[in-house]
TrEMBL record:
Gene3D superfamilies in the record: Spore Coat Polysaccharide Biosynthesis Protein SpsA, Chain A (3.90.550.10)
Listed name of the protein: Glycosyl transferase
InterPro entries given in the database record: Glyco_trans_2-like (IPR001173), Glycosyltransferase_2 (IPR050256), Nucleotide-diphossugar_trans (IPR029044)
Occurrences of domain Glycosyltransferase 2-like (ranges): 4-169
GO MF term set: transferase activity
Record-linked SUPFAM superfamilies: Nucleotide-diphospho-sugar transferases
UniProt xrefs under PANTHER family: RFBJ PROTEIN, UNDECAPRENYL-PHOSPHATE 4-DEOXY-4-FORMAMIDO-L-ARABINOSE TRANSFERASE-RELATED
Keyword Aminoacyl-tRNA synthetase: no
Organism of origin: Aliidongia dinghuensis
Keywords in alphabetical order: Transferase
Length: 232
């Protein structure tokens, strides 16, 4: 069983080394690490080119010629994946690669085809931060569930694991953070796909520490929930 970990990154100079090492040291020895740099401007791109690409620490580094967004970076990474299971890993250290075993166990047991890692299910540690972010996340998850008839607790989570043939068969249209509601809607429409959710820890960061998602992305998520559940 081979894992492909896709790491989209944009201006993550402070954390890119640490996340790559964390992924390399995570469970399951047979791993393919694909980093997609979305035209970083803070030195991340140069670090990838001079210190990481060709070092043997990752299998592929792919560079976008201009900034397109997280969804676009994932779209690029998924195309190059060759593992049996594909996992999304943000580059900001908010999610712990040591928990990959939780994500892939339902798939390995042939109980699931897609697994969501929920920050709000279970008793794992998570950093206490923004109240209104939690309210917004809960509202978007609830609205998404109303359309999809799924019972997720955390639709907007980064951690998602897919059988490779499933994620590569889906056309991803959203280039920014609209990826989350889009992929949830499209998976929910596929007959026979088994979706599981597992509890994970979460070490969120503040805007001063580099958090990028904002209120505009919340409105886009609303639009995507309606669009991909009713118009697509």
């Amino acid at each position: 069983m081979k894992l492909t970990i896709v790491i989209p990154c944009y201006n993550e100079l402070k954390t890119i080394d640490a996340i790559i090492e964390a992924v390399r040291n995570s469970p399951y020895p047979d791993k393919e690490i694909i980093v997609v740099d979305d035209c970083s401007k803070d030195g991340t791109r140069e670090k990838l080119k001079t210190e990481i690409e060709g070092s043997g620490r990752v299998e592929k580094v792919i560079y976008h010629d201009y900034n397109q967004g997280k969804g676009a970076a994932l779209r690029t990474g998924f195309k190059h994946a060759t593992g049996d299971i594909v996992i999304v890993q943000d580059a900001d250290l908010e999610y712990d690669p040591n928990e990959y075993s939780r994500m892939v166990e339902p798939i390995l047991a042939d109980k699931a085809d897609v697994v969501f890692g929920s920050r709000f299910a279970g008793a794992d540690a998570h950093r206490v931060l923004y109240f209104w972010h939690r309210v917004g996340n809960s509202f978007l998850t609830l609205l998404s569930n109303m359309f999809t008839n799924l019972d997720l607790t955390d639709m907007e989570t980064c951690y998602k694991a897919f059988r490779r043939e499933i994620i590569q068969s889906i056309t991803i249209e959203e280039s920014r953070f609209g990826f989350e509601p889009e992929i949830t809607a499209k998976i929910s429409k596929r007959k026979g796909i088994r979706i599981f959710e597992v509890g994970i820890s979460y070490y969120g960061r503040t805007y001063d520490e580099g958090k990028k998602i904002g209120w505009k992305d919340g409105f886009r998520a609303l639009y995507c929930i309606v669009k991909y559940n009713t118009l697509s």
